[in-house]
Amino acid sequence: YSTVFFTREDSPIRALADLRGRRIGFQYPMSTSAYLVPAAILLSAAHPVVALTTPMEAPPGDTIGYVFGRSESNLITWVEKGIVEAAAFSDQDW
Question: Looking at the whole model, is its pTM more than 0.90?
Fold first, then answer.
């Protein structure tokens, strides 16, 4: 399996760099495909990530803020409602 990053179809986000200054949802802290791998991908591309305390908090500066949604359905809902601008989880859950 692998990681899938996703946004709303009408989102202006087209590349990982477009996530700067925005929020992304990950599933939970021990997930390989829904936290560890996507966070490593962002960090390896020199995109700083910072943990947020709530999905309503704005990320500081030019960082990518992340929150844990705990389930795929929460992440999908958060993206659809604009609570986070993007999310990432396993392609098997996609």
Answer: yes
Copy the structure tokens of residue 39: 């966070």
CB-facing half-sphere around the CA of 60: CA atoms within 13 A? 6
The residue among 63, 86, 66 whose CA lies nearest residue 75 is 86
Measured CA to CA, the distance from residue 5 to residue 88 in angstroms comes to: 4
Q: How far is CA 8 from CA 18, 77, 87, in A?
A: 13, 10, 10
Strand ranges (E), 44-85: 49-51, 64-68
Please provide residue 19's backbone torsions phi and psi, each rounded to the nearest 5 degrees. -80, -15
Give the pLDDT score at 93. 77
